[in-house]
Design goal:
This protein is α+β, with helices and mostly antiparallel strands. The chain contains 3 helices and 12 strands; from the N terminus they run αβββββββαβββββα.
């Protein structure tokens, strides 16, 4: 009898705990967001590196050093552009750089010289850390992924220059296809066929002796 009362009390306690538990707060996430997921051979394509969830975590971004891997047989990295939300490099508020010389890897980083308070006032909950530019050089699909193995890994610092904990890290993908040839309307084919037949008949008639 005593064990039955204990079991019912335990079930009731678990039910109350479930009813009144505090909803989980989403953490900071990092993602790769291609502007277009399907492009034609020879096209340029942009990929935004986006961080989000800063407000819920009461965080900022003060530094990042990231590597993105991709298939060099399908894409060729041609550039990296940085925003001004870690400070303006032209005003010596930040410093940024990139390395594109290794096939299949984009290595890019930015360091802010602003205070935590200035960064908190400047940065929204979600923003683009950098935009990567690629040229489509081969057919197929490539995955874009953050390199978490090669030092320094996925390195992002927040307030007080502490390493920023990421709740999730996303990947991206781009498919390169052959550009379709422009279709010729069926009516145009009929007109061309008619002109060809008319021209052939005139040539035949002109060659007939009088």
């Amino acid at each position: 009898m005593k064990s039955h009362r204990f079991f019912h009390s335990l079930v009731a306690a678990l039910a109350l705990a479930t009813l009144y538990q505090t909803p989980a707060v989403a953490g900071v996430s990092l993602s790769l967001q291609p502007v277009a997921q399907t492009v034609n051979l020879g096209d340029q394509v942009m990929v935004n590196v986006v961080i989000s969830g800063l407000d819920a975590a009461s965080q900022i971004v003060s530094t990042f050093d990231l590597n993105v891997n991709y298939n060099p047989g399908i894409l060729n990295a041609i550039g990296v552009s940085f925003g001004a939300l870690l400070g303006d490099p032209d005003l010596l508020e930040a410093d940024a750089g990139k390395v594109l010389s290794t096939p299949g890897v984009v290595d890019f980083w930015e360091l802010s010289y602003l205070s935590d308070a200035d960064l908190a006032a400047l940065q929204p909950d979600s923003f683009t850390l950098a935009t990567l530019s690629f040229q489509a050089v081969g057919l197929g699909t490539t995955t874009l992924i953050f390199d978490s193995v090669t030092p320094p890994g996925i390195y992002i610092t927040g307030a007080s220059a502490g390493r920023l904990a990421l709740d999730s890290v996303g990947t991206g993908s781009i498919t390169v296809q052959q550009a379709n040839s422009i279709p010729v309307p069926a009516t145009l084919w009929l007109v061309l066929l008619g002109l060809g037949a008319f021209t052939g008949r005139r040539i035949k008639d002109s060659s007939r002796p009088e």
